Amino acid sequence: MLMTSAMTPERVFRRSLGGALIFAAAFAAGLSMPAHSAEQTDVTTLAGSMVTLYLLPFLTDEELATLRVVATNEQALSLFVTSRTGHAALAISESDGFIRDGKPAASAIALADFETAQAAREAAIAACDTARQGTENCVVVLEVGPAK
């Protein structure tokens, strides 16, 4: 996606996230997922990318179902990560959440096109921490990188 000077990464993400949520809602409504601990991850190889979803205990059923669709569906993932040339990360704050009242939280930030996974994580967390309203620090819930 071509970014103009009026389009910040956050605006691009929020615009894309809205489409992803609409797309994922149809799938999420019918999914029933078991509870998971913070140590668990889902790792998927999708269209040449390795997608890691961190199954954090504070994620609601709706948030987890939506993130699973993003992590396993090429179309949904492309709404978040428009370029697969580098690393990407999605960070959220536990107190703000990922989805509230059917809409993405303003602090849910996905950033892409970094040379390393660490750089993507740090940038997404920093942007999320700047945007968050709640007291909980942001954490990465989804990472995308080249498949190995």
Q: What is the number of beta strands? A: 7
Number of domains: 1
Q: Strands of the largest sheet, in order across it? A: 1-2-7-3-6
Radius of gyration, in angstroms, nearest whole number: 14 Å
Shape label: globular
What would the average pLDDT be, to the nearest integer? Answer: 79
| Strand portion | 25-35%
Features of the shown structure:
4 helices, single chain, 148 residues, alpha+beta, disordered N terminus, two-stranded antiparallel sheet, five-stranded antiparallel β-sheet
Write the layout of secondary structure elements.
Layout: H1 9-28, E1 41-46, E2 49-54, H2 61-72, H3 74-80, E3 87-93, E4 99-100, E5 103-104, E6 109-114, H4 117-131, E7 138-146
Antiparallel strand pairs: 1-2, 2-7, 3-6, 3-7, 4-5
Helix pairs in contact: 1-2, 1-3, 2-3
How would you characterize this protein structure?
With 148 residues, this protein is α+β, with helices and mostly antiparallel strands. It has one domain (9-146). The chain has helices spanning 9-28, 61-72, 74-80, 117-131; strands at 41-46, 49-54, 87-93, 99-100, 103-104, 109-114, 138-146. The strands form 2 sheets. Strands 1-2-7-3-6 form a 5-stranded antiparallel beta sheet, sandwiched between helices. Strand 1 and strand 2 form a beta hairpin. Helix 1 runs antiparallel to helix 3. It is globular. The model is unreliable at 1-7, 9-16 and 18-38 (pLDDT under 50).
